[in-house]
Every structure is written in C-alpha cells, then in structure tokens.
Amino acid sequence: PPDPYLATQRLAEAISGITHRDRLSQQTAEWPPVLVVHCDKYGELMETIGGTYVVAGENHGRQVYQRSAPVRDTPVLLYFWGHGDVEERGWWFGPEVGSETAWMGHHSGEDDPPNRGWNWHGGGEDVALTLFRCDDSALTAFAGVTVNSDDEEDNEEAGREAV
User: Fold this and answer.
1) For residue 62, which of 35, 54, 80, 100 is within the disulfide window of CB 3.0 to 4.6 Å?
2) How far apart are CA 67 and CA 113, in angstroms?
3) How buried is 157 (Cβ within 10 angstroms: 0-12 exposed, 13-18 middle, 19+ buried)?
4) Rounded to an integer, what distance in angstroms lies between the CA atom of residue 50 and that of residue 70?
C-alpha cells in the first residue's frame, strides 16, 4: 500500500533543499501518489473533504483516492466518473464511487484530478479548493530536485537552484 509518510518526508526534504545525496539512506523508492486537499474559503468544506489522500483503486481508467487523514466517520473518495450525461462526467468528491451524494466536482477529463477550479455539486462558484500532488513529478516541478536520480551532480545543482 502507499506510504503517506514517505511522500510527506520527500516533500519536506525538497522544500528544505535536501538533495538525494544528503539523505541518510541511498535507497530510493518510487513515491506513492499522495494528494493534499486544502480549502481556504469554507471551514465546513475543509472539515468534510480536506486532508491527505492515497490511491485506493481505479475507476473508469483513472486512479481513485481515499482520504487517509484526518480519519472521520464518513469515508471520502476522490474519483473520476466517465459515463452518463455531460454534467455527471469528471472528478468528484463523495462517500463512495458513483454515489448520488457528492460534495464537490470538476468537469475535467484529465488523467489526474485538477489542482484548482472545483465547484459545489450541481454548479455554483469556485470554492478555492486546491489539490497538491506529492509525488516525483510534482516535487521536480516544485523544487527542481530530481528525486530518484543516481546522478548526484545534477541533484546538487538542482538543489542550489531551488534555494
């Protein structure tokens, strides 16, 4: 299963400028796809769907994410729905895949959930919801650090540029 601790640790290393060669262990593992979901605008929304998500399966050819923290009584999934009316297609936050109950949606057909532009189920305003991907590609884009490279010279140079 995905290890959210490892993903969080790698993100912290990149932010603080720690390069591959600076790590205590030279063993590198592929990052598990982890998402952090944050909402500035609505406290209740943050309580309902905010948190850390890990991959929990697949639906309609896309990964399904399940909230791993904070743990609440109601499960929260982020999934892609690719069938039915145009209004039903896209990425959704809900208690189960395909549920009639969905809190937020984004009518994107992208392979990965979009970072911004989420709306209340049924339309309405952008709710200032942001998704942060915590994986190798996101880390490279964020800090300019190549996580799984054996080329220490490139990582050292990228680490200097990121600071």
Assistant:
1) 80
2) 14
3) middle
4) 8
Whether the CA torsion 4, 91, 96, 56 is positive or negative: it is: negative
Q: Which amino acid is at 9?
A: Q
Please check the confidence at residue 9 and state whether its pLDDT lies above 90. Answer: no
Could you give the strand order of the β-sheet that contains 62-69, starting from the edge strand earlier in sequence? Answer: 119-120, 104-106, 90-94, 77-81, 62-69, 51-59, 34-39, 129-133
Query: Global pTM?
Result: 0.68
| Backbone Cα Rg of the chain | 17
- Beta carbons of 69 and 52 less than 8 angstroms apart: yes
- C-beta of residue 159 within 8 angstroms of C-beta of residue 17: yes
- The answer to whether the bond into 95 is cis (omega within 30° of 0) is no
- Contact assessment for residue 127 and residue 120, using Cβ atoms and an 8 Å cutoff: yes
Q: Residue 146 corresponds to which tokens in the numbers above?
A: 């190549």
CA-CA distance, 126 to 120, in Å (whole number)?
Answer: 8
CA dihedral 113, 44, 54, 150 (to 10 degrees): 70
pLDDT tens column, 95-116: 999 998 999 999 889 999 999 9
